[in-house]
Amino acid sequence: MTTGSSLLILGQGADPASERGVSCPGELPPASDPALVERARAAKAALGDRLFVLGHHYQRDEVIQFADVTGDSFKLAQEAAARPQAPYIVFCGVHFMAESADILTSADQQVVLPDLAAGCSMADMATYDQVEECWEVLEDAGIADDVVPITYMNSSADIKAFVGRHGGVVCTSSNARRALEWAFAKGSKVLFLPDQHLGRNTAVLEMGLSLDDCVVYSPNRPDGGLSTAELRDATMILWRGHCSVHGRFSLDSVNEVRARIPGVNVLVHPECRHEVVRAADLIGSTEYIIRTIDEAPAGTAWAVGTELNLVKRLAGRHPDKTVVFLDRTVCFCSTMNRIDLPHLVWSLESLAQGEVVNQITVEAETAHYARVALDRMLALP
């Protein structure tokens, strides 16, 4: 019997509702086209100063070579805002990043995402309706007035706007502690969206809270799976969300690499599970990871717990050091990797011909309140 939730046999059939944006309008160059690199160069040259290409650190090398600036999501959005003379911003990243760029850039600039299917599984784990329902649960528990919401940068514009409306702030992995300090100066509790691991790791390892101070709100369970007493006793209400890449690293990964490479330094992103960051030698944002490897002495060995494209790039850049992926199993960010050379060439050539494709536009009211939350982050001490 076939139902609406039946599994599709591999290679047979498709679910349009779950594959939004997989097909772009227009003709994509075939992935095997040997002229793709030259076509990208030609289209970029034709656009000149009208174009600004942003490349996230997790992008493929074939794409990152055409980026005018590389960085993490917030740095790239800021870079876009700092280029008002460029009417076209091509964001080689994922959907929430392009949204942030649209929020921070002027009305005269148009933000393009080469493939609309480049989303973020973590951002998709918190929808606006779910967060609204959570807030009603907090109101019913009588604690909403004590709760300050914080959302990680890796969230949709809708969630950033929700936080902006409710007196909260956006954070990045590098300023999460400052955001928590700001929030606890305003209230006694924090609702942390959507990555439970970054919230827990920051609260426990940097703020001195205990694991008992944290509860996890599950949006697919009645009342988040928590009792009124648990909500009232909690200091950190963590959303049940995670990064599909960073969440895969385990304590076994750490133990295995230490046994395989004596003296290895384990360096992980704070989106990793709590037991993994506890077992690591160093923890930090993507920019911190890059800086640490760049500055490390020759001859040192590093096992890095973050996206594989970046780890491979760091290893290639530092042949005098041993740089390996923390897990033996290959794991790219599948949605980030949707931005490939055929999609990039298609978007650049379309712009060169005067056609804006895959434009990301955030509705005005949503953009306003999301900007409120982002501006609060920028004002953090």
TrEMBL record:
This is Quinolinate synthase. One of its GO terms (molecular function) is quinolinate synthetase A activity. It is an enzyme of class 2 (transferase). The keyword Heme does not apply. Its EC number is 2.5.1.72. Pathway: Cofactor biosynthesis; NAD(+) biosynthesis; quinolinate from iminoaspartate: step 1/1. It is found in: Cytoplasm. Catalyzes the condensation of iminoaspartate with dihydroxyacetone phosphate to form quinolinate. One of its GO terms (cellular component) is cytosol. Belongs to the quinolinate synthase family. Type 3 subfamily. [4Fe-4S] cluster binds at residues 120, 243, 333. Iminosuccinate binds at residues 56, 73, 152-154, 173, 269-271, 286. Its cofactor is [4Fe-4S] cluster. Keywords: 4Fe-4S, Cytoplasm, Iron, Iron-sulfur, Metal-binding, Pyridine nucleotide biosynthesis, Transferase. Binds 1 [4Fe-4S] cluster per subunit. HAMAP family: NadA_type3. Its main location: cytoplasm. InterPro entries: NadA, NadA_sf, Quinolinate_synth_A_type3. It catalyses: iminosuccinate + dihydroxyacetone phosphate = quinolinate + phosphate + 2 H2O + H(+). The keyword Isomerase does not apply. PANTHER family: QUINOLINATE SYNTHASE, CHLOROPLASTIC, QUINOLINATE SYNTHETASE A.
